[in-house]
Write a structure and sequence with these properties.
The complex is a heterodimer of chains A (231) and B (228).
Chain A: E1 6-17, E2 20-31, E3 35-39, H1 46-53, E4 61-66, E5 69-70, H2 75-79, E6 82-85, H3 97-107, H4 112-121, H5 137-150, E7 155-159, H6 167-182, E8 186-190, H7 194-197, E9 203-208, E10 211-212, H8 220-230
Parallel strand pairs in A: 3-8, 3-9, 6-7, 7-8
Antiparallel strand pairs in A: 1-2, 1-4, 4-5, 9-10
Chain B: H1 2-24, H2 26-46, H3 50-82, H4 85-91, H5 96-125, H6 134-159, H7 165-192, H8 199-226
The chains are: A alpha/beta (231), B mainly alpha (228).
Chain lengths: 231, 228
């Protein structure tokens, strides 16, 4: 049993795809109870870093631990405490919303009732028996949030979680983050626009060309300049 | 307790795949239609000689199932790739083997049903006499299906991350299928020819041995295949 309050401890993490180094020595530390925004232009390695911490990719150099568990040596322990939300919602279009969540509940060893509670929490009870293929992008994103809730994760890894969400959806996302953090979790959130995430962020880190350039605080100007560079 | 949990996960995956298939129907209908069309085409190619068609029936039936089955295996991982679900599936804690077991169960149901339709069509089309030892024939068909689906499910997982998976899967799968296909085909042929105890028994035993080897090997190797 590893007891630590360090949610993420990444040391000199590097990763390449073919011959191109996407991450070039990332050092990042997140404590329990912290919400950190990860900023950067497209292609700077934000999603790659998130996928490495989530155990979906292995680093070619460096070491990452999540609450003391090594992501390579103890991947299963990491997976049991991490909640990862990617760009794609990762839902099954031919299943209904309820069936999607009940499947996730079975995989996470949760009760079917918890699946229904999560569905109610994200406001999709009325659409519970509709197939996900008929859902709008925002509804699919809400369903992905419900699945995230089912896992009761200690570390949230969110890749642009606000995309396709309306105002209510953004508030829902933020309330889920706040709720988990209040229970001792941490969150690493990839954002392009600071606006929706600003209420929950404690600090931001900026990735440029596969490196974290300077630790800073929530600063809208930083994001504006990054978006401008991206264009 | 852990095994019970893993069994629950495997069942959940099989249920999810079969429910998705039942809703869309596109996969089963097209794959079965392809297998039956191949039977008909083989029938035309073999000509009007009834005895020749009867002799060729076991090989024709198994080859039709084999070619159509490849599409089914590709599809079983395609539903994970479509909405980015494969990452979520991998991220659920627990043994990776339960993913394989779930996919295997769903594919066994899918290919088993297709095989039943193809066999009945083949018997009618090729005017094959159903042997008295039809339970033995059923056992051989089941054994051949298990070997075929085990390897197909495994190699489809291996090919699923490749952009050329539709081409890669048959290239990986067909050479490995030779022992299963040969023993299943010969056992079927012997049973349909009325040779119950000699050739049929030997080939059926060989098929069972291959099934056990392939099941054990694929369950052991699956984790290395599905993890990045």
């Amino acid at each position: 049993m590893v007891a630590t309050n360090v949610a993420i401890d990444a040391e000199d993490v590097a990763r390449r795809f073919d011959t191109t180094w996407v991450l070039r020595g990332i050092n990042l530390r997140l404590d329990a109870g912290e919400v950190v925004g990860l900023l950067g232009a497209n292609g700077t390695g934000k999603s790659t870093l998130l996928r490495i911490v989530a155990t979906l990719l292995r680093p070619h150099a460096g070491r990452v631990t999540v609450f003391g568990h090594d992501i390579v040596g103890a991947a299963d322990e990491v997976r049991s405490i991490v909640g990862y939300m990617a760009h794609a919602p990762g839902l099954y279009g031919d299943l209904t919303a309820r069936e999607n969540l009940r499947f996730a509940a079975s995989m996470l060893d949760r009760d079917a009732r918890e699946a229904d509670d999560a569905l109610a929490r994200v406001g999709l009870t009325v659409a519970a028996n509709e197939t996900v293929r008929t859902f709008s992008s925002g509804m699919q994103r809400r369903l992905a949030i419900a699945r995230l809730l089912l896992g009761r994760p200690r570390l949230l890894l969110l890749d642009e979680p606000y995309s396709n969400l309306d105002t209510d959806g953004i508030a829902l996302m933020n309330s889920v983050i706040e709720e988990r953090v209040a229970e001792g979790a941490a969150a690493l959130v990839v954002v392009h626009e600071l606006g929706p995430a600003a209420p929950v962020l404690d600090r931001t880190e900026t990735l440029v060309d596969g490196r974290i350039v300077d630790p800073g605080t929530s600063d809208e100007n930083t994001v504006i300049s990054l978006v401008a560079n991206d264009r | 307790m852990t095994w019970r949990r893993e069994w629950r996960r495997a069942r959940a995956i099989a249920w999810k795949d079969l429910t998705a298939e039942r809703r869309s129907k596109a996969g089963f209908n097209s794959v079965t239609a392809l297998a039956v069309t191949m039977l008909v085409l083989f029938g035309f190619a073999l000509g009007p000689d009834t005895q020749g068609m009867r002799d060729a029936a076991p090989g024709v039936i198994w080859l039709s199932v084999l070619f159509a089955g490849v599409l089914a295996f590709n599809r079983s991982y395609q539903i994970e790739l479509d909405g980015g679900s494969l990452d979520q599936l991998i991220l659920y804690p627990g043994m990776r083997r339960s993913i394989f077991a779930g996919k295997l169960m769903a594919n066994l149901a899918f290919v088993g049903l297709m095989l039943a339709i193809v066999v009945v069509t083949g018997i009618v089309l090729f005017q094959v006499k159903v042997p008295r030892a039809w339970p033995a024939l059923l056992a051989v068909l089941a054994g051949g299906t298990v070997g075929f689906v085990t390897l197909g499910t495994f190699y489809a997982a291996m090919a699923s991350r490749s952009r050329a998976r539709e081409v890669l899967l048959p290239l990986l799968l067909f050479p490995m299928l030779v022992p299963v296909l040969l023993s299943a085909m010969e056992a079927t042929k012997a049973l349909l020819g009325g040779n119950l105890m000699n050739d049929a028994g030997a080939w059926a035993r060989l098929l069972a041995v291959f099934d056990v080897i392939f099941l054990a090997a694929t369950f052991l190797a699956f984790e290395a295949v599905i993890e990045v």
